[in-house]
Amino acid sequence: MTIRTILLGLAALAAAPAPAAWVASWTAAPHAPIGTGGPFGAASYNNVTLAETLRVSEGGERVRVRFTNRYGPAPLAIGQARVVRLDDRGAEMPGTSRTLTFGGRPGAVIPRGAPFASDAVAMAVPALGRLKVEFFVPGETGPCTCHLTGLDTLAVSPPGNFVGKPFQPASTSQVRAFLAAVEVDGRQARGTVVAYGDSITDGVGSTPGANRRWPDVLAERIQAAGLHLAVANQGISGNRVLSPGMGESALARFDADVLSLPEVKYLIVFEGVNDIGQRFGGGRRGGPNIPGLDQPQIDVEQMIAGYKQLVARAHEKGIKVYGAPIGPYKGAAYWTEEGEAARRRINDWIVNGGAFDGVIRIDQAFADPADPARIRDGYHMGDHLHGTDAAYKAVGDAIDLGLFRGR
User: What are the tens digits of pLDDT across the range 72-104?
Assistant: First the structure.
């Protein structure tokens, strides 16, 4: 091999595009519909266009959108779809609209139980940029595979295909319908951080449309520090570690909602208050009345075993796992002394048991210094359980960014 051949080879390598660095820049974990009416009922759609707004965390040069029909009763048809950037006022930015295709075709039929990713499109998306994903469903969808607590706008058109056309919504809501993730490919992207939890991670109590959940605050701090990590919020309101309810249990949905995401480097586990609240207080003290929700006779040792399973499965994939002790909830509808005792025992293990790669004291960020079993005034939405904008900012600000350096 001559020097000239070596130099030409090096030049070709330098000119080659960087390998794809796909990360999960935005997510919404889907869950099965619970009934067809009331606050937990799932809508169905037929011959309408759905438009969903969202904010990504990490930026990049290419985008792909993951749809989901995980709980659909039948195959889900997508007739046409596109993605477009939005400015700070929520208006579409001229020249940024991109048609989404599926294997080169303008539409797709998503089988029952399946995710379905669009083809990648060239689209420069800045970190913390806003997008709208718009798609036409030509037929009856059946009860939606949705994420109930979307906290941003889903606009439903009048009958017909309005993809790429302005329309006056026939209805709006704050659910995430058939949309599981927006992934970006960025040259600087280092990986994905998954926030795994329940309604407190999902952002219940925060201002809709304002991106004030604690994972949003963490994403802003990560970007300001130049760490170039995506933050995927995989919280589900009402979720539990061991038992199904609102969504499959954290153990059951782990592969789909964590391990399937691209380039997961870090996992924050903050979940368990619904397990102990329902076990020790549900039904006796006016706990949440969710249709079909069972209350198994779990104990502290079973909870600890569940956390160990999550850690082991993540470690097998090279993911660092940070545990967050269960937050204070004294005064909530399902709080009892027995549940509080279980919380303290579980939290002692999370902090001192050595299973996690680190501990994030979300519980302390919420707690009233005068009574750590209770959320401080102004940090809950009136129910002594869910946070406020101020609380979620305190949580996001309290997380040590040093935990996410060096990988």
Answer: 999 999 999 999 999 999 999 999 999 999 999
Let me know how long the chain is: 407
In this prediction, residue 180 carries a pLDDT of 98
Q: What is the pLDDT of residues 160-191, one digit of tens each?
A: 999 999 999 999 999 999 999 999 999 999 99
Would you tell me the crossing angle of helices 273-280 and 337-352 to the nearest 10 degrees?
150
Q: Which fold has domain 190-402?
A: Rossmann fold (3.40.50)
Q: Which tokens belong to 147?
A: 């994420």
- The letter for the amino acid at 53 is T
Do 385 and 205 contact (CB within 8 A), yes or no? no
What's the rounded Cα separation, in Å, for the pair 399 and 93?
Answer: 34
| Planar angle of CA 208, 209, 214, nearest 5 degrees | 75
Query: Which tokens sit at 372?
Result: 């750590």
pTM reported for the whole predicted model: 0.92
Q: 188 exposed, middle or buried (CB, 10 Å; 0-12, 13-18, 19+)?
A: middle
Cβ atoms of 325 and 289 within 8 Å: the answer is no
Question: Alpha helix (H) ranges present in 353-388?
Answer: 362-366
Tokens encoding 144:
């939606």
**Cβ within 8 Å of residue 322, ≥6 positions away:** 266, 267, 268, 269, 356, 357, 358, 359, 360, 403
Of the candidates 276, 259, 108, 115, the one whose C-alpha atom is nearest the C-alpha of residue 198 is: 276
Cα Rg, the chain, nearest whole Å: 22
Contact by Cβ (8 Å): 23, 263: yes
Query: Residue 179: its pLDDT value, please?
Result: 98
Report the percent of the chain where pLDDT is more than 90: 86
Q: What is the pLDDT of residues 322-369, one digit of tens each?
A: 999 999 999 999 999 999 999 999 999 999 999 999 999 999 999 999
Beta carbons of 134 and 49 less than 8 angstroms apart: yes
The domains of the chain are located at 28-182, 190-402
The closest of 53, 33, 54 to 44, measured between CA atoms, is 33
